[in-house]
Amino acid sequence: STTSALVDELKRVNAENKKLTEMLTLMCDNYNVLRKQLM
Amino acid sequence: MDCSSFLDISLDLNTNPFDRNFPDKLPKKEVKVSTSADLERKWLVKDESASELREELNRVNSENKKLTEMLATVCEKYYALHSHLEKLQSRQSPEMDQTEQPTKKRKQDTDELLGFPIGLGSGKTENSSSNEDHHQHEQKNQLLSCKRPVVTDSFNKAKISTVYVPADSSDTSLTVKDGYQWRKYGQKVTRDNPSPRAYFRCSFAPSCPVKKKVQRSAEDPSLLVATYEGTHNHLGPNAFEGDATSQVGSSTVTLDLVNGGGGHRLALEKNERGTMQDVLVQQMASSLTKDSKFTAALAAAISGRLLEQSRT
């Protein structure tokens, strides 16, 4: 039961990691768009 | 950890009552011993995998923390740059502030919709799906990229035209019938003219930016001066209707439409209609000339007519 709980938690944290990475990529893209507008 | 006792207990639970009655069945006991060893090995493997899982979990957690910090930094920089850009834009075009206000409000709404500061601050992103985020970001990008050209475009297209319309001096309504529907939003008395000036917006506002000012002429009080600002981005309600009332109502309209931006559209439409009629006539003529029976009948009719004329 401890192992399965750990696996579940790992899955959750991995999914969160994926979302954070995507958001970071998008924010970087948006930042670059703004920077281009300024230039 | 004392695993053997646990294993023994579990094995005892699986024992068959018939085995107790016959303890001399050694092969079964041997089987039991081998099973307990296997489970012990599995348990150890599980224990190792659990520690590995914990390590992996710690690693991913620390990575998450770093990502959250990076995201927060990028967001801060993004919003700083964004506000800087807005300041620059407002400095460049102070006269367009009123036009930009709704856009700013809309953008703030989009930011609120995105909910990035909340999601990033706490590092919790479970409630938002990545697809929705992506879609919202795309919308935001579009909004940001489209904002300036849209404002500039509408600003450049704002044409001003003045129309003089004869009106009864007793009529104080300041109404100019021009085929469009208007909403009056204000009236004021100006210094240069004793008659008040009425302000109208197109009934399609805010999608249509056209405004109209109507005031009786100071030089000739029998004339109403209507000043139009902007170009209609739609057709007038009575523009192409063939009913008599609209035709009567648009006697002054023609003047206005020709001077205003809508006139170009009307002229274009008329030209298109004329071209269509010409094309239809040409098609009919060509189809008739290709028809040999029609040509023969026409020739006979003409020759018969000529013969009759020559007899008389």
Automatic annotation (TrEMBL), chain B:
Entries under SMART domains matching the protein: WRKY
Alphabetical keyword list: DNA-binding, Nucleus, Transcription, Transcription regulation
Keyword Metal-binding assigned: no
Stored InterPro entries: WRKY_dom, WRKY_dom_sf, WRKY_plant
Record-annotated WRKY domain positions: 178-237
GO BP terms in the entry: defense response to bacterium; defense response to fungus; regulation of defense response; response to molecule of bacterial origin; response to salicylic acid
Compartment(s): Nucleus
Record field: compositional bias (Polar residues): 90-101
Domain of life: Eukaryota
UniProt-annotated stretches for the region Disordered: 87-144
Gene Ontology CC: one annotated term: nucleus
Molecular function terms from GO: DNA-binding transcription factor activity; sequence-specific DNA binding
Cross-referenced PROSITE patterns: WRKY (PS50811)
PANTHER family with a match to the protein in the record: WRKY FAMILY TRANSCRIPTION FACTOR-RELATED (PTHR31429:SF76), WRKY TRANSCRIPTION FACTOR 36-RELATED (PTHR31429)
Record's protein name: WRKY domain-containing protein
Annotated organism of origin: Microthlaspi erraticum
